[in-house]
Amino acid sequence: MEPIQVDFTKKGKSGVKDAYIAPEKSWLRILINIGVMLVVAVVAYYFLLPPMNFKSLDFYMYFAIVFASYIVSAVITSKAFARPEYIPYVKRQAIAPIVLIAILAVVLGIGYISSAALFRAKSYSQLLTVEESEFSDSFSAIESIEDFNKLPLIDADAAERLADKTLGDLALVGLESQFEVSNAYSTQINYKNAPYRVFPLQYGDIFKWLKNRADGLPGYIIVNMNTQESELVQIPEGISISTSEHFSRYLGRVLRFAYPTYIFGTPSFEIDDEGTPYWVCEHIDKTVGLVGGDDVVGVVLVNAVTGEHNYYNIEEIRAGVSADGTALSWIDQVYDTDLLLQQYNYYGRYAGGFINAYIGQTGVKMTTAGSSFFAIEDDVYLYTGVTSVTSDESILGFVVINQRTKDAYFYNVSGATERAAQESAKGIVSDKGWEATFPILINLDGEATYLMSLKDANDVIKSYAMVNVNQFSDAVRSPDDDNPDLKACLQAYINKLAARGVVIDIDMTGNVAADDVTPSTDDDTPTADSETVSGTISDIRTAVIDGTTYYYIELDGSGTYYYVSAALGSEVVLFSVGDAVTLSVSTTASGEILPASDPVFAESVTGQ
Question: Please, what is the average pLDDT of the chain?
Fold first, then answer.
């Protein structure tokens, strides 16, 4: 073997510090190292699916892995771990990838500085535009008992429990043990003018995927959040694109290969007006500096059955129709919950500047823990309470945000947080151990009210509860444990407020879909079995029967009393002796007015 020639003099261009010993066939080893790096790059891209975008942290992580793989390969191929004399050679080989990693690190560091809230607080606060208004003007007003048919009366956990039970319907086709409900990608939507939560299915495990992948997923499950009806919707062609698929049918891979530079948010599973399932995928852009200020700039709609995908910019989504006339108003979740809450918290914290956000904190506010949804017309709105940064048990108001258009409204209401209301509702059933769902905010004739379902350990709805936001000690529930009657709960709530002089004018006629009640007329015109009686009140008394307050009225000292519930004649709570009133009263078959010992039911009462 020829002696190794090493020049330890300073005659060379680089000097002593550049001296190193190269292994035999070093050129071949370099080619191997490059080949390994390229293989790692392809494999890592296929599985990690990073966007080729300088605004994405995944982009930097991906290339850090790729360049690091060259260094690791150089150590292995040179056998430097066994031959220390080759370490200088490996260091020389590592210069290029280390420099590239350092450049990426510098770019990322500059990006974080340029995006820091310390310098860009105003930009963060302007990600969301919020319109402030009075709660009495809110569009969540309940004017009739039938308006409750549009409200979600169960929460996501109860809906998932119903979906799990419905999955047993797959026993009809022998697939009951092959699939599971995917709660992570379920979405609350407004479908056929009713609140629904739609659940995609997923394969039980890799072996069940191998067995069933040719046919795809059999369908999806929809749960009516008001009536609590759940249905398995089977798709004959099968759902081929999902988050539980693998290889080319995996949703993330479909998106990445079609849109290599796009940054995507969390996808949501929705159905259009015909029941066709789609994946709604947010296209995210960083709007503050290089890596800050996430916002949605478009949406990719992926047909879960065929895999066909189309891109629509955010202006088309907000308008509800694309440039080519495609209807898009059925899409309910373009902005996911976490993103909207983040943007509002930026608005609440940084609207007064960065320094004020931490020193002084004038006007600084943040969302409370938890959120819920309700539908208005064809859109779904996210709402949550807003409190001060001291995180106490009181709220400053509520923020309501359209999940398709990002229109945001703040309503000034002071009172208890949702969590405090839940505890108040649980307190009236403490002996039963029921849990309260996250409250739904409703506007009852200007009174901000929390509506909750009380459920047992199996997520079965046992009762309903209402809590006044301003006076959260005013908590009531439907009285019958065997029949969770929403109408009875509302009547008890009206009576509770009437006792402290607050009159709620709600049309109590009509039907509540969630309850088995009989609709009645809302016309005050006397029927064939009623007559009109007028006079001056000489005596008025009250009694509470089964949670309902009744008013007994005597006219002109006649000794005859007429009774009316506060729900049917809410004005009665304001009347006193000496007031002139007109009553529309029921009569007996013979037309006689009964004496005080057997009072007459009054269908309505008005002041003259």
Answer: 85
